[in-house]
Write a structure and sequence with these properties.
This protein is α+β, with helices and mostly antiparallel strands. Helix content is about 30%, strand content about 25%.
Amino acid sequence: MKRKAAVIMCAAMIAAMPMSSVNAAESGKHFTAGATTGFFGAESLDVAYNWDGWIMSIYGISENLFRLDASYVPQPWIAESYENVDDLTWKFTIRDGVTFSDGNPVTAEAVKKCFERTYANNDRAGSTLAIASMEADGQVLTIVTETPNPTILNDLCDPLLGIYDAEKEADPELGVSCTGPFVATSFSAMTEVQMEKNENYWGGTPKVDTVDLKIIDDTEALNMALQNGEIDLIAQLPASGTKIFENNEAVTMDSATSTRANFLMYNLEHAGVDDVNVRNAIGMCIDRESFADIVYNGYATASYGIYPETLPYGSTEGMENAVTAYDPEGAAALLKEAGYEDTDQDGILDKDGEPLSIHAITYSYNTECLQLADMMQAELAEIGIDMQIETFDVLDDSLTNGAFDMAILNYAMAPTGSAQYMISMMFETNGSNNYGHYSNATVDELSEKLKATFDEKERSDIAKQVCAELLKDRAFDFVADQQLICAYSKKVSGFEINPSEYYLMTNEIDIEE
């Protein structure tokens, strides 16, 4: 009863939240959406800061030179055309008539200054797109890459390379001026953003006047808010909510196959998990099929590889793979063979006097990751591995500081449609998100080869070779590939799910008054 009362109170608080943007435009159309921290949680409205560009793209504030369609094919957006001059040189013609929300025109020089600021402020930029030089001439931006880059159009879809006015200092609250259909009027970090339509939006006047996007990490309260009409849409609906809305005649529920995955990242500098036998044993103790079918209510697929099998490089056929099924008995035998035993008779295995105890971290708001952690804790205890779970609203500090043995994570593996995205970011020795200190010279060499390969079949073959190395090393263990699910009121129209997850609020979204 206490849990139910708390949810009702939380839903009531959501309804009572101040809506200054609504009051400012009472006669206009207002749209409200809710999501957990993982989908709506920005620390700032600065494209160049951390991962906030991703969230600003979702908000409909920032846009890129190119935009991915539903098949992950880049389409011209702020750039209207391009020319591949040679292996290193690309010319992009910026669309005439596009302005930032502050009124300044978007020129090639403005884009150049934007990229220069982003590269100076975010370490991920260089691994996303390695630029040797840029030159601006009117509306033509020339980019020379450090090496031949066959995925440059995909790379330019990454929200980190969103376009903003770098001529002005970022506002402490409202961030940078961008080109999207909406402009922030109020922002509370990791809590809420209120927006109004960009009257001068180049793509056509938005159909709604004001927008309120709220972070609601209590998934029961999130679901109740949609049921009660307090919000119009749930973005990235937690799988637990799918049963609630399946037969709700007032709600539409849509899903799209994405590249998002639940996976484990091991800190290879920590004792215990530095042993591949331990990592293999842990992988064998995960009931992936039950996790996908029960926790995700069928909106996920069990994974024994690296990338989803829907991608051309996602198959594990012909690869050496120690984990192909749920096998706790096999895991126990593997640990025994590797010299782990319960010498103290306390139920925890040890080796050379060191108990096999694992400090696992995950998100406090991600229901599926929390349930996976609980499942693993119980299963590992059965074979003598002690697993302690710690949760955080934001994992960045713990990951960066290496304060974990194992991280239970949820990432989009190929949001730009390119295998290179995650290989560069997480699997390369110096990858910006390689928090577990994984290093494999073969992977590094293959990554460099992939960066210079234009033929699509060859690219897929190289990506598969990378996956084969990752499966042997098992520094990362993938558990399930999930679908992107959204639920929204029947009053909403013009909403489409894009599997990249980059886009939510568009000028086409409308709501019946």
